[in-house]
Amino acid sequence: EGNRPSESMIVALQWNASGTAIVTGSYNGKAYTWAPDGRLLQSFEHHKAPLSAVKWSPSGDKLLTACVDKRAALWNAQTGSAECHFAFHQAPITDIDWKDNTTFAMCSMDRSVSIWSTKDQSNKSNVPKAKLEGHAADINMIRWAPGSDVLASCSDDSLVKLWNPESKSCQDLTQHTREVCAIQWGSRTQLASGSLDATVRIWDTESMKCTNVFTKHLHPVSSIAYSPDRSLLASASHDRMYVWSVKEDTLVKTFRADGGINDLSWDHTGHRLAGGCTNNDICIVDIRS
Fold first, then answer.
1. 122 in helix, strand or coil?
2. Phi, psi (rounded to 5 degrees) for 125
């Protein structure tokens, strides 16, 4: 009981596309939107268990929340009202990601990925457009490649998979030696991954080869995030945030937080980097300073 996380611990966060708000997801099952000056804008209350992911739609008018209660919800970002609930997976949902304003995917500890459309009326009976299976352990994160139909997933089986959802076929990236916790696309053919092996790897997904390995971290990598112009890659491990130059293959900034860092997100300018911390804080740093 003494090691139980705080109810208000931030487990996930994301800036909106315009940089005017941050959404946070908490251990208490609630999501909140905030102005950059710290004002609470809206609360989203439905889940009765810890959240695992929160995501703005590209247009910023919708929110998705994913929860360890095996459910996900679609929200009106302005009013805070729930528009649809999803109860398809057989184990906790670990991540959720928008492809565009109407299509999204979610993944679960049941080792599967499901694809959904907000325009599909079958959502009311919780039937996804597609179900992808192939990982041998819990899936931790999914990310759509920008402007592409390719979906990447990473898992406790130490693999990163690149899926074609239509054919349900996949290819594997295999050089991590432990669980892969985080993935992010830098371009349609460049993918970064962070692992419990304390490394961040950059992959060329056309050649399926690893082109860079960042080894500064001493602890498992919990989150990674590309800057908007894709020139920088931030990674979090324990209480440290590192910012790397992808092109120069060098470490350019180091930041230390007061608590462990669960998630990272850049604002739209690429000047501010936000971290959601285990001590309930949102840590926002200006990388120009």
1. helix
2. -105, 10
Closest CA to 285 of 272, 270, 266, 267: 272
Kindly state the tokens that stand for 150: 């390719």
* Contact (Cβ atoms closer than 8 angstroms) between residue 163 and residue 172: no
Quick: pLDDT tens for 3-12: 445 677 888 9
- Residues 141 and 136: their CA atoms lie apart, in Å, by 14
What confidence tens digit (pLDDT) does each residue in 189-221 have?
Answer: 999 999 999 999 999 999 999 999 999 888 999
pTM listed for this prediction = 0.90
Can you tell me the distance from the alpha carbon of 152 to that of 210, in angstroms, rounded to the nearest whole number? 15
Using CA atoms, how far apart are residues 213 and 195, in angstroms rounded to an integer? 11
What is the chain's Cα-based Rg? 18
Cα gap 100→151, rounded to integer Å? 13
| In the block, residue with structure tokens 């609360």 | 43
CA nearest to 23, candidates 69, 49, 60, 48: 60
Q: By three-state DSSP, how is residue 278 classified? A: coil
Residue type, 197: D
Residue 40's DSSP bridge partners are 34
pLDDT at 1: 36
Structure tokens at 209: 């080869």
Give the pLDDT band of residue 93 (cuts 50, 70, 90): very high
pLDDT over 70 at 148, yes or no? yes
Asked if residues 180 and 193 have their Cβ atoms less than 8 Å apart, the reply is yes
Element (H, E) at 52: strand 51-56
Give the whole-angstrom CA distance, residue 12 versus residue 1.
23
**Helical residues (DSSP H) of the chain, grouped into ranges:** none
